[in-house]
Fold this protein.
Amino acid sequence: MQVTIKLSGNLACIHTSLPMEMVMEFTVPVTIGQLLIELAISPLIITTVVVNNQLKDQDFLLTEDSEVLLIGPMAGG
Amino acid sequence: MINGYAGTILRVDLSNGVVTKQALPEDLVNDYVGGRGFIAKMLYEELPPDTDPLGEENMVIIATGPMSAHFLPASGKTHFGSKSPATGGYGDSNVGGHFGPALKYAGYDVLILTGKAQQPSYLFIEDETVEIRPADQFWGQGTNTVEKMFKEELGEDFQIITIGPAGEKLVKFACIGHDFGRQAGRTGIAAVFGSKNLKAVAVKGTGSIPVFDIEALYKKGKQAFEHVFNKPGFKGWVPEGTAGITNWVNMVGAFPTRNFQTSYADFHEQINGKAIVEKIKITDKGCFFCPTPCGKYGKAKTTSGSAFVEGPEFESIALLGGNLMLTSIEEVAYANYVCDELGLDSISAGVVVSWVLECYEKGIINATNIGREVKFGDLDSIVYLLNIIAKREGMGDLLAEGVKISSEKLGHDTERFAIQVKGLEWTGYECRNAPGMMLSYMTSDIGAHHARSWVLGHDIAGAGKSVHDLIAGGGETKKLSKAEVRGKSKVVMDSQHLRPLFDVLGICRLQFMEIGFEVEHYEELFYLITGKQRSWQELLQVSEKIWHLTRCINVREVKGYGRNYDYPPRRFYEEPIPDGPNEGNYITKEEIDLMLDEYYEARGWDKNGIPKQETIDRFGLSSLVQSRES
């Protein structure tokens, strides 16, 4: 299955080797947590996960054509 | 005519009322671009060495950037610079709102204030009309009160910056207020205003600013706004603004609590962004051309008083909430309001007050010294302390000097827990297990400030356990293992060039940092405004040059400046964190020195942190600066 992943600006600043937007293929459905393992992104720096415009937690099972936004921590003003 | 700029530097000598309008030099624009760049260059060049920060010779420079006031997201930023009364070195501060655009539409990119007015005064600017006017009726009033008075007298079209009673009393961490709740908070520039008998600046501008390709800019600007609105993170970010980070900072054990004694507040959900939305917020409030309003305007009702207030931002939640143990969002918001109205930097005020409260708990200060019983978590105590500081009453006169001087004079080893660097109080991140962030605070040019470099996310990303183990553990961790201290210099330096670049350009960085508005847009917008092709990398190199220049200002102005001014407070390298996610963690003095050694080498500074001549030459500064390397 195909999943589109987008990183927020602040997350992209931390994980500079990752593109801000990418498409990944999986042979079986994966959870958000499994996706983070695949991307080697620590869950400690994911403050919010949005899947198809809805907030989800890391146990959420992704489906075909999911659009996932991973938001990292911001610097509070 | 220089596209993107109003084209004029306005100089006002408050001593004799002489107003000079100077054409904006092209070489200044090419070499330093705007905002913070203009300020650094002018301060180095024009400020007499060893100037008293509160003396007549000190300058206040208020600068916009080439992207200020133009049709693009969040182009309303204004940058202030001076020799700081708090640190004795380079000081600057930044405010959103609408003042900078008004100044630019009036025809001025930069406003420079020198001298001292004979009596309490304000500066009136309406396009080409510039006058120093009496301000007796405003003197002694709070910032919100004064702004309302000005709007009623001059009209809503005027944009106002003003100091409060704290600035008039030369409190070293007094701040400038604007737009009923925004501040140019840091480094005490409001005290410089006060030393000049200057209460406020009121500006109205009806002119226009030349643009290289106005039609293309309009089209691109419109796309930029739509792009931001459609960003997936937009809807998630706006409701809570910066307060939205409160939970996360606690989860990773970086939340200042009880004068930075520890780093986790078990009551944080009572003072977070959700609490603001549910309990006090009336509306979102934004700045000039801002699509992502970070301001949360609301009403706070407490037993100590009620007020309408913009905020609290995360920093105020951290320093007035966790740090002072105020456990309700209403109380944090009210304390925020008191700071705003008095014209006190809520960050520095929070740290000074928390130091007092710890001294009181330890019996070093008592009710006779301070005037009454005071304690953590008691809003009445806190409001009392804020007021005596702003008015310099009793012990407030000492506290108004800032936590560094207060602790040096009080003694009893209270310097150990005076949380500051270079004389500027620490902001809202506890860093005993965040070495990159610790290094950021230590090496910030204005003192302990997070806005120069924010790398806490990098620190946490590399924290301890493997990603797999963290996921298996449910994504959270009850305890973080000690972070690696080596190899932090590059990420800190990159951030120190990136974040202040927005202060050079005159725009807000939140759209880029938090919403993900891409760099390529800024390059194109810069070209359409100025007609100059300058890549983002090129602009970052200008920012890097400015970084070395502000270091040189500090070296020149602060006697004995060097490595010893880059150390954090002893609490951070002598006391392990006692509880929470970072229990037992801290960074040792040896590790602090290792980080500084790495950083100075990467910077091209000597072992004392002084820029080497070869570095000054490499960045094209040698016509301005001679190295003082040892």
Q: What stands out?
A: The interface with chain B takes residues 6-15, 20, 33-34, 36-37, 40-48, 50, 53, 55, 57-58, 67, 69, 71-77 of chain A (CB under 8 Å). The longest strand of chain A covers residues 2-7. DSSP finds two helices and five strands in chain A. Chain A has a mean pLDDT of 88.
